[in-house]
Amino acid sequence: MKLKKRQKKPALPSTVTELDTEDGSKVYVVGTAHFSDSSKKDVVKTIQEVQPDVVVVELCQYRVSMLKMDEKTLLKEAKEINLEKLQQAIKQNGVMSGLMQMLLLKVSAHITEQLGMAPGGEFREAFKEASKVPFCKFHLGDRPIPVTFKRAIAALSFWQKVKLGWGLCFLSDPISKDDVEKCKQKDLLEQMMAEMIGEFPDLHRTIVSERDIYLTYMLKQAAKQIELPRASENEPRRYIPAVVVGVVGMGHVPGIEKNWNSDLKIQEIMSVPPPSTSSKIFKFVLKATVFGLLGYGCYRIGHRTVQFVLSMPAAQSYLQRLTEVPQH
């Protein structure tokens, strides 16, 4: 039934890139803007047209919760960045990576507030549509976010971390829906990436280029041939090419195309380097600052409390009695 519904020459959106494997499997990569209504429609149309065997999305196990949350809840979550979320991020990823994650969440919250739209709508649509296709599997194709953040932090120098954090903290430029839709244009995206490479080349390598490799690897794994059911053990095994739909940010599409015919190894990009000297210094300074402020706060509160207690008549009378004891 699925093969009958599958279009031989599917009418696909312009944001779809078609890739082939050596054994004849087809992969349709939908390049999206993460805050775009039209990207949702592109994902739905592509899945309906090709009736895939596997759908792969640019998410990892740490972000899978957004698939089952409704837009209203996600919108509220994206706007509310509090101390509890910061503590959770630091506990999960470490001090530096946790702070970086919260800064990026702040950027996401800024876009959410400007557009009134929760991120990841195209992934939720992919999840819904995949459940409607018979025997379609749903895969998470992105590298775990703690690995990405830890490698990104380790790649930056101390001053680069300060500069990046400062820029993210004071992000306030207005963003329109037209700006988001422009992110689906490859030429504009390549220009933005070029600007980013010039300022933080190591950050681009860890957050974009390495994830391009990981996403490509996961798409190729999903595109392995499918074994058909056998009536008996004596019947020979038969395989057919797979059809896969990948849903990724448009910024990853050029990298996926570039790496498609390469023999990929992901062990190196999955390793987490030990903390650098600058990270240790920053962590020490941050902890010293926090404890210093707490200590000073306690001192100020305690000092004022003691002064207040000593100014009370009862306390002064009691102290006077104590001074009179040695005389008696």
From TrEMBL:
Coiled coil: none annotated. This is TraB domain-containing protein isoform X2. It comes from Lepidothrix coronata (blue-crowned manakin).
